[in-house]
Amino acid sequence: GAGVSQSPSNKVTEKGKDVELRCDPISGHTALYWYRQRLGQGLEFLIYFQGNSAPDKSGLPSDRFSAERTGESVSTLTIQRTQQEDSAVYLCASRVDFSSYEQYFGPGTRLTVT
Amino acid sequence: RKEVEQDPGPFNVPEGATVAFNCTYSNSASQSFFWYRQDCRKEPKLLMSVYSSGNEDGRFTAQLNRASQYISLLIRDSKLSDSATYLCVVIGLSGTYKYIFGTGTRLKVLA
Prior knowledge:
The structure holds two protein chains of two kinds.
Chain A: E1 5-7, E2 10-13, E3 19-24, E4 31-37, E5 43-50, E6 65-69, E7 75-79, E8 88-95, E9 104-105, E10 109-113
Parallel strand pairs in A: 2-10
Antiparallel strand pairs in A: 1-3, 3-7, 4-5, 4-8, 6-7, 8-9, 8-10
Chain B: E1 4-6, E2 11-14, E3 19-25, E4 32-38, E5 45-50, E6 55-57, E7 60-65, E8 70-75, E9 84-91, E10 99-101, E11 105-110
Parallel strand pairs in B: 2-11
Antiparallel strand pairs in B: 1-3, 3-8, 4-5, 4-9, 6-7, 7-8, 9-10, 9-11
């Protein structure tokens, strides 16, 4: 079946512009995660959605970052007034439900802020 | 102190060698542990879960030492295709599903 998809695959933007990144999880997966991975670094947790519960936003680095998820489907991560330090790969992952810990990752969106 | 720490490497080993990585975690209440593999410019993929009793999957063996708060990954008979970055992942607290990733250990298997 289809895996996690993300769009765009690459995004180059000017400092100060807003960007919106999209994630389509695996159908039926109730949990969805966003991570940031800077070059040569590990994955940094940003936000976690589980069903209709309030999301865990504890990893969002500033109020310029926000994310939404419609039901148990697509999610968008929005970065306002982008800064050069926002340049990274943004990875989305989904997990079926509480019966499994396995996350399935999308290919990521490579964001470059010039 | 970082919540999850790994030696970044790289570990350069010849084909056929045995190599082991350790990962330490700071939260003694951590409940679940995993190893993920990430190939260059690719997304991470689950390699194996780590159980208290230790577990083996072919050439890969994972161990958990709760007393010393570390997990390990042993790769026997290394293949060129094992070259990748190995990420240690910890779930902090029981009932939560927030994954904490280490920065990864890079492995290069040389012909």
